[in-house]
Design brief:
It is a single chain. By secondary structure, this protein is α+β, with helices and mostly antiparallel strands. It is built from seven helices and four strands, in the order βααβααβααβα. The longest helix is centred in the last third of the chain and has 11 residues. The radius of gyration is 14 Å and the shape is globular. 34% of the residues are buried. Homotetramer.
Length: 137
């Protein structure tokens, strides 16, 4: 079933010049399409909504600081099973545990700076798309 998902290339990915590499992996998947894309330094208020489920955890505040520390690439990706699919391309949260071949496994080392966010369910995707692309139909 065709779906849409919110993908963020986090500030570490942008600083390290990995936009092309990561967007390329997404574009290479058959029948997926990037339907919106912008380089943008994320507002704290948007990040607080985005990461509301993590409020109170020890990593929350440094995570928000990191995510606001420089530009991210904010994008909408649409296609067949794209929600599950981009999560699979990204790999598990901890880049050391993430398998080689995944984005986090190939490029990451520390948990906070794990390069990419992708919505984890259809409900999360709709919620997150509204935060970052309020005018997107
Ligand atoms: N123990 C931790 N220490 C430091 N940072 C963490 C830790 N756990 C999670 N994070 C950071 O918070 C983000 C959100 O955590 P979550 O558990 O939702 O992981 P995720 O769903 O794999 O990642 P994301 O929501 O960014 O796609 C992680 O991607 C990572 O950047
Ligand atoms: Mg998450």
């Amino acid at each position: 079933m065709s779906e849409r998902t919110l993908v963020l290339l986090k500030p570490d990915a942008v600083r390290r010049g990995l936009i092309g590499e990561v967007v390329g992996r997404i574009e290479n998947k058959a029948d997926w399409a990037v339907t919106a894309l912008e380089l943008r330094t994320l507002e704290r208020s948007a990040l607080e909504q985005h990461y509301a489920e993590h409020v109170g955890k020890p990593f929350y505040e440094p995570l928000v600081e990191f995510m606001a520390s420089g530009p991210s690439v904010v994008m909408v990706v649409e296609g067949e099973r794209v929600i599950e699919g981009v999560r699979a391309l990204a790999g598990p949260t901890d880049p050391i545990a993430a398998p080689p071949g995944s984005i986090r496994g190939d490029f990451g080392t520390i948990v906070r700076e794990n390069l990419i966010h992708a919505s984890d369910s259809a409900e999360s995707a709709e919620r997150e798309l509204k935060i970052f692309f309020p005018d997107f139909i």
